[in-house]
Amino acid sequence: MAGTLILVRHGQSEWNLKNLFTGWKNPDLTEQGIEEARRAGRQLKDAGYIPTVFYTSALRRAQHTLDLILEELGIVNVVITRDQALNERDYGDLSGLNKDDARAKWGEEQVQIWRRSYDVPPPGGESLKDTAARTLPYYAEHILPQVEAGETVLVAAHGNSLRSMVMAIEALTPEEILKRELATGEPVIYRIGKSGKLKEKVAL
Q1: Confidence band of 194 (pLDDT split at 50, 70, 90)
Q2: For domain 3-202, is the CATH number 2.60.200.30?
Q3: Which pairing describes strands 53-56 and 80-82: parallel, antiparallel, or unpaired?
Q4: Per the residue annotation, which of 88, 126, 148, 158 is the catalytic one?
Q5: Which H/E stretch holds residue 110?
């Protein structure tokens, strides 16, 4: 039996628009972000996907995205699991800073290392490796068993928490996942069989 896993990065947030490091800070969606989330819902509906299990992070922008997707799908009165294990990578001392200001303070090369290396965290924050260390156990314990049981599971979360899952599902190396960008509000869909084996990546 194969199940379906749908991953959606939240729509554009107010801090995405302002070019700020966001991490665990809690801005909401912009008008564009709201439309991106609604569009994701319409895309799923048009393609015939009816999610049955729902996960999101503890942060407003991901929760709002999920709510809008469900509204477009006409899904109401369902249990939604919210957990900080699915939160965005914590950017520590960079959180709330404009990315240009951070480059001026620490230098472009150092900021680029923090942003794009796999295992070098910013001061007081998490690397992608650290993020995966909390996201993947949660995925393995809670999300994957539902998919393996044949459910259609929808996860609305963040660029880096979702990249951790993509890395595991597609068996990517740290170098490969660093090059993978997840666009805001664009569903990524997998068919997954027993033992978490990827059967198919589905294009919408």
Answers
A1: confident
A2: no
A3: parallel
A4: 88
A5: helix 108-116
